[in-house]
Amino acid sequence: MIPRYSRPEMTTIWSPESKFRIWFEIEAHACDALAELGVIPKSAAATIWEKGKAAEFDVDRIDEIERETKHDVIAFLTHLAEIVGPDARFVHQGMTSSDVLDTCFNVQLVKASDILLADMDKLLEAVKKRALEHKDTITIGRSHGIHAEPTTFGVKLAFAYAEFERCRTRLEAAREEIATCAISGAVGTFANIDPRVEEHVASAMGLKAEPVSTQVIPRDRHAMFFATLGVIASSVERLSVEIRHLQRTEVLEAEEYFSPGQKGSSAMPHKRNPVLTENLTGLARMVRSYAMPAMENVALWHERDISHSSVERMIGPDATVTLDFALARLTGVIEKLVVYPETMLANLNKFKGLVHSQRVLLALTQAGVSREDAYRLVQRNAMKVWEDGKDFLTELLADKDVRAALSEEDLREKFDLGYHTKQVDAIFKRVFG
Amino acid sequence: MIPRYSRPEMTTIWSPESKFRIWFEIEAHACDALAELGVIPKSAAATIWEKGKAAEFDVDRIDEIERETKHDVIAFLTHLAEIVGPDARFVHQGMTSSDVLDTCFNVQLVKASDILLADMDKLLEAVKKRALEHKDTITIGRSHGIHAEPTTFGVKLAFAYAEFERCRTRLEAAREEIATCAISGAVGTFANIDPRVEEHVASAMGLKAEPVSTQVIPRDRHAMFFATLGVIASSVERLSVEIRHLQRTEVLEAEEYFSPGQKGSSAMPHKRNPVLTENLTGLARMVRSYAMPAMENVALWHERDISHSSVERMIGPDATVTLDFALARLTGVIEKLVVYPETMLANLNKFKGLVHSQRVLLALTQAGVSREDAYRLVQRNAMKVWEDGKDFLTELLADKDVRAALSEEDLREKFDLGYHTKQVDAIFKRVFG
Amino acid sequence: MIPRYSRPEMTTIWSPESKFRIWFEIEAHACDALAELGVIPKSAAATIWEKGKAAEFDVDRIDEIERETKHDVIAFLTHLAEIVGPDARFVHQGMTSSDVLDTCFNVQLVKASDILLADMDKLLEAVKKRALEHKDTITIGRSHGIHAEPTTFGVKLAFAYAEFERCRTRLEAAREEIATCAISGAVGTFANIDPRVEEHVASAMGLKAEPVSTQVIPRDRHAMFFATLGVIASSVERLSVEIRHLQRTEVLEAEEYFSPGQKGSSAMPHKRNPVLTENLTGLARMVRSYAMPAMENVALWHERDISHSSVERMIGPDATVTLDFALARLTGVIEKLVVYPETMLANLNKFKGLVHSQRVLLALTQAGVSREDAYRLVQRNAMKVWEDGKDFLTELLADKDVRAALSEEDLREKFDLGYHTKQVDAIFKRVFG
Amino acid sequence: MIPRYSRPEMTTIWSPESKFRIWFEIEAHACDALAELGVIPKSAAATIWEKGKAAEFDVDRIDEIERETKHDVIAFLTHLAEIVGPDARFVHQGMTSSDVLDTCFNVQLVKASDILLADMDKLLEAVKKRALEHKDTITIGRSHGIHAEPTTFGVKLAFAYAEFERCRTRLEAAREEIATCAISGAVGTFANIDPRVEEHVASAMGLKAEPVSTQVIPRDRHAMFFATLGVIASSVERLSVEIRHLQRTEVLEAEEYFSPGQKGSSAMPHKRNPVLTENLTGLARMVRSYAMPAMENVALWHERDISHSSVERMIGPDATVTLDFALARLTGVIEKLVVYPETMLANLNKFKGLVHSQRVLLALTQAGVSREDAYRLVQRNAMKVWEDGKDFLTELLADKDVRAALSEEDLREKFDLGYHTKQVDAIFKRVFG
């Protein structure tokens, strides 16, 4: 997480101020439940809420106390006591630091997920808009980087849409994974705190109670969360790589938007680089890499150790901030993507008409020519296109052996691009409903 | 995937024989649909089924043809033609190799998932059985590897149960991810094949039609699948590491089963090593590592390239076979785990009664002693236990300042282990219902 | 490691036969040293060598014994005793299984390294040959996939040569890392075996004695080894991706060799796919992924645990066999690479002469035109090339403002491609000496 | 990289101020070389040095210009021009941004390496000191977490010393990898800049000239660099895990230092947690994870793309700052580690004398008892120790069958711990010379 690749709404989640505010809410909700259960006075719970809500927590002061106590939660509670007064002694009754820390981390991840889901919705909207716009924009489909058969640019985007919809579903499942709360005390036995406190806090914070925790919330949940972010980042990479390919000088079927005043890096007006999607490719590598330490975090020792903590202090912000930035950047790229339908057509026709050779081959076989002969006939005409730049249809029309099997009308019909796009409606119906 | 860590049911899925059988089924089901649509004769479809079903595909013969054609699907189709006869020319109409390869790979992954789900059920059953058995077996809970507060061995296992139940849910979602079928022809446009063929094959093979494919089934699905396996493997590691810890010479609260005749590695009868769970720790590292190439596979170029293929030929078998083996091995370890409740109790009491010091501290404060004084009182008695091996309760009872605040009865009550386990029923209810 | 991506010389290293042969040699060399030290009779050592050397170890028999003893080294020693007779009791005196297993693993890795080094030499030779051949073959250099400035195809290959030379140096260092031998007994204290035995075996097997081992050879060595293989695989990927780019339909400056009889996947003669380099891209992902579990293997518990073993049984063969195959395949691709210098030139001139715009700009500023004016002058002519397909030099020559600063001769000189390649000799001298 | 796990000396390297200072030095040294070659006036070079050296670069101002130009190097050069005046037009002649950026990144990595090397020296010193101190401190060696044979705590540390010495050597090699400079202009052809400029700048900045670059310095160098850091982090993890194990309540042979006033997390005086080494375990996971994106960065497209940039802006600081912090923290842990030799001895004797059973077994066989009988004799006495807490030597002395083969003196001699440590001097000589 570095400012260059960060957006404020997401980084705010990870600020000390946000963290302490969440800590306070967890403690105050717990007080409500404890008061309801008669463990602490109701008036105390009310005071804690009132004073804590009004206060701004002083991060420097808390840091100062932590330098002394070497314990962040105690430092916060001490500062809270400075604000709340004597009733502060009713805060944190029967709880452990992990109850606060782990529940807070999950609250932060849930908030981050909500931003990511909104990001995804915007990305989906942008992709859909451009897909509909280019539903019938003919372009060549490529396998292995080599021309294959025609498709439309809209179909390419429909594919991305379907992929990001899957990503959205995964993100929702990932959010669900970490939307839990644990207030279970030392080693998770509830010895000093009633499970009903946990249920209350969970509900108040928009979470579910963790069915069984061991002081810490189990880290397989977080492993799944960060692994999912890694998969989503890989899909960001996929669309980014597609755009980088399309913007290559020799292809130039689409390119990232350049503002009017913007200059390329040199005097050459064609020197517009797909720097945004290259950047996204790198960011995807980063988000993906965070999945590994998250998985290594699962096997904590016994009821818990604290090795996960340093990892999460890093990847919590790093993964969510970076993916948020990446999704927003990709949305912008798609929204403003400059598309060149004429170049698409020109590229498709690079080898004049050759893209239809397979259909001619099939037509010949269907007309009774053996497959071997048909292949030979097609190939000898194709070679003139390939090597001498001739027009494929013209050559075929002039080939007696071909004409023995196929009429001019037959042949012309095989050069209809519409043949390849006749199912585009069906595909769009599947994807966009 | 090596024989030492493989089980036949799973490896069979990945045999050439299985693969060719699935290829045949995909082709034959497609023929049914093509016949239904009137594209090929119904009699041809019937013949293809009849002859293909009866035949055993000759792997050596197919390999021989592949050496010539350098194309595995063509080699198979050629061999199929040798079996089916003239009607074979109606096979594979309008399809691409990817239609067969990708659908087959997903069929194999679905079959593998089904085995893994069954493995998981057995593991859950074993964990549950031992959890119920040891619901009330008192043991020390540990944070940071250091004694914390008492819990029960059953609660430890309940925790594992909840974790593997989450893993099961994730595995089902992962199975769903890859349970799709694509029969969409070159670059996925259905130009040469009706989408209804895809729908028929999908349904016949127990899959869903891929909403939009680009000749290949999108690899974000597989990335999610293998990432999920990596998370599950990490949970296998967690429970394995727990057992390795419990079997340490100094702890020895549980150990892997050793058969009567089995000898440790030397003359020392205590030399029983937790080799199975150590092995599982290593296998987890492997399964986890396969998530990375699976994620890198997502960003194929344009409609498809073939870089994913070599990766999947390896990690398809490697990840599923290894995880299957690991789940089964872990199940065996849990089923036969030798548990030593007396050692658990002895370890818990290593520092005589000290485990109750926190309750005494709380009782003192509740009795009106200031927190600072209470801490001092507890600590000066605790030190005698810690350094001189005295009994904590005896020392407290003899301390006048303590007794000024707490009666003997009060003090004795604080040494009740039941205090820590009073919520075990509630926890079990949450986990096992 | 699957047969499709394996070469026999490398797989042989990992066969049971090879392993048992190495085990025998370690044991027999140890016997020599023990005999020299007077611990066992010299005649016994002689007999062990004589009988063991002549014998073929029966893998099935050893497996059979292992099923009984559940210990692979004991199974081997038992079988060896069947071959050697009574003198077998002098084998393995004071040694542990790890002494044999770890030293053997390192012998295997050293042998594998030697093959990889030979592979690398062949690759370097192939790259050098083609680099020299195309030293002066003009081609466009690309940044961001966008045309930048001219270079030569030989320079591109010189770059690859320099990279693989670095890889060779790294591979030698990696070989050095794992070329160690440990014969140090339980927990590595030499309590039951003299360090001179270790020194003798090390020297006899072409290894160095591990300065200090803990029953096992430390796994940071292996982590470094496999990480290095991952880096090398990434360089294989780099050159492979370059070729995949060059073979794209729109670029087509080079392509993988297709044998005369070979057919593309369809009737289209241009449909030649860069399947070998795509395959190499996938294989690189695999080799890279093995670095992670190798690093996780480092932190074994105390003097040793056995969690590394399952990992190494997999990645030992997987990483070396796959990289060997990849290096050989890449060598073949380079040797036979079909290069199209005319297309290179045509691509370079896609925008007629525009590639020289930067030099014209510099010349204008050097002739006293302000940078802003110069940019404007260049751009207005460049736009005619870019948008209307005009010839850049023609336009410049016809532009009065340009001509006010630069003569025709001046301008023509700026269109000299030789300007860009004048340092090629210097670069080649640096790389090839 | 977060403040909590950062040390100022290392973070300073990555500050904007440091970066701009290095950029300036690269440009200024290049001017010297250009002046020497007569390309620019010597007086200009002198002015540039003089003014630039005296100036403080205004990061906010540069950021402001970058927001306009969207190009960081141009922004810097513009700001430099504001400082230097008209002579600034002679700066950056014939260079590209990459020349500055890549050379600067390598300068930063070299500086970071130098700090890491110094860290490593301090760690080695600390480990050596404690190793010598505990050279003869008897402790049990453990395999699989199970007691094996005696060793000394000094030998354990000698092992760590040897491992970190290897890490130091690797770190030096990694430093060498990235200690290169490229000033080669667009696509690395030196068309607009003389190679002698590169040589001068390289030498002036303490680097070597990159033999052949492609506008960018090849990223296999950086992959190797970050992979090496990952391996080193894994060794940090190994020693940290050892300490975590030793500090377990049941083992407690050593523990991290707690300052006198420091309190554990609760009233229990034994509740001292190995939080520093747990933290190091997590940090190791992070440093390790950065190796993957670094390897993925290698395969840039053609002469270069910019996907590596976002990765390196993150892992450059993240990996070096985190490893620096980890090495320093580990050094502190080792320096202050509290070692309990008496507990080590007590643990070793947990099963009274049983640790010597292997020697008794060997002695019996050497005295002519068959191996099977010897095993039976040892085991029947060992079982009394294992199950009934008897003393092993006492039992053996009372066993007639044992005594038939071994005298009391013989038996007593087998219980000499010195037997296991007799080679400690030899091991220390190997490690410490």
Describe this structure in words.
Chains A, B, C, D: Residues 352-432 form the Adenylosuccinate lyase C-terminal domain. A two-stranded antiparallel sheet of chain A has the order 1-2. A two-stranded parallel sheet of chain A has the order 3-4. The first copy, chain A, has a two-stranded antiparallel ribbon with strand order 5-6. Chain A has 433 residues and is mainly α. The mean pLDDT of chain A is 94. The radius of gyration of chain A is 31 Å and the shape is elongated. In chain A, helix 6 (97-133) packs antiparallel against helix 7 (153-178). The first copy, chain A, has 20 helices and six strands. The first copy, chain A, has three domains: 1-93, Fumarase C, Chain B, domain 1 (Orthogonal Bundle), CATH 1.10.275; 96-193 and 207-259 and 268-346, Up-down Bundle (Fumarase C, Chain A, domain 2), CATH 1.20.200; 354-414, Orthogonal Bundle (Ribonucleotide Reductase Protein R1, domain 1), CATH 1.10.40. In chain A, helix 8 links the parallel strand 3 (180-181) and strand 4. Chain A has helices at residues 8-13, 16-36, 42-54, 59-69, 72-84, 97-133, 153-178, 195-204, 220-247, 275-289, 291-296, 307-336, 341-348, 357-366, 371-388, 392-397, 400-405, 408-414, 418-421, 424-432; strands at 138-143, 146-152, 180-181, 208-209, 254-255, 338-339. Chain A is 66% helix and 5% strand. Chains in contact: A-B, A-C, A-D, B-C, B-D, C-D. At the A-B interface, strand 1, strand 2, helix 7, helix 9 and helix 10 of A face strand 1, strand 2, helix 7, helix 9 and helix 10 of B.
